[in-house]
Amino acid sequence: MKTSSPLYRQIAKQMKEKIHKKAWLEGETIPTEAKLVEMFQASRVTIRQAIDLLVNEGLLYKIQGSGTYVKENKIEHNIYSLKSFTEEMNALEKQAANKILTFQLIDPPDEIRSRLGIQEGEQVVYVRRLRMIDDKPLVIEDTYMPIKLFPDLSLEVMQGSKYHYIEQTKQLKIKESFQEVLPYMPPDEIRELLHLDYNIPIIKVQLSSTLKDDTVFEYSELYFKSDEYKFTIVATRT
Predict the structure, then answer these.
(1) Closest residue by Cα to residue 139 from 73, 225, 232
(2) What is the mean pLDDT of residues 221-229?
(3) Count of CB atoms situated within 10 Å of the CB of 211
(4) Residue 187 and residue 198: Cα distance in Å, rounded?
(5) Helix crossing, 7-20 with 44-56: angle to 10°?
(6) Per residue in 49-74, is it b (16+ CB within 10 Å) or e — as a string?
(7) Which of 22, 121, 200, 236 has the fewest CB atoms within 10 Å of its CB?
């Protein structure tokens, strides 16, 4: 094969084709180094260079003592589309699950009370949920909801879809959500729940959602694994 491109780049290109053509499936290991040496008739050094190139491009990842895997596509989160986590996962034909870590009635701090537009003395339900797919943690959600709006809110409800409860059970119309997207270096508690390595930043979203009459019905802080999610914005020129 005569070309000015280094051999490891040629091999990396062939590896890419195997990924794109689904010969190597997302989430599965690629052949061992020894098999790749035989497959591409190249040295171990060259094979390692090709693998490292695809790791840097985000197509492969390594797990020490386990092997090299094809990277799964990131989940796309459109911040202009007001969908629940459950609705997003259903659209991707993935089974979502919620693990309730905290469910309690509290007197909220001033910042939360201000964001919800409630008076001093009014209580809220605080819920921390770990959002998962196939037992893999993806998002931590801290939600605050005024008890006066949802006196029957239960742990069972929050194990399902919050928006389904609001729209179907409570027969309330959700209008819009105001979101702030921030880079965030997680503390140990968040990092451990999301199974993150040290010194990996994540994406934090702070959002306030309103009903049709402009009543704020929730304030939430969400922590997304940045290696699993990508955020998209569709901008139009007016």
Answers:
(1) 225
(2) 83
(3) 17
(4) 10
(5) 60
(6) bbbebbeeeebbeeeeeeebbbbeee
(7) 236
**Mean pLDDT over residues 55-73, rounded?**
85
pLDDT score recorded for residue 236: 56
- Are residues 70 and 24 in contact, defined by beta-carbon separation less than 8 angstroms? yes
Beta bridge pairs of residue 98: 131
- Report which residue type is found at 115: R
Contact 100, 155 (CB under 8 A): yes
Residue 230 bridge partners (DSSP):
76
Beta strand extents in 8-152 (DSSP E only):
60-63, 67-70, 75-78, 96-106, 124-133, 136-146
Pairing mode of beta strands 136-146, 216-224: antiparallel
Nearest partner of 98 among 127, 136, 140, 132, judged by Cα: 132
Instruction: Please tell me whether the overall predicted TM-score, pTM, comes out greater than 0.85 for this model.
Output: no
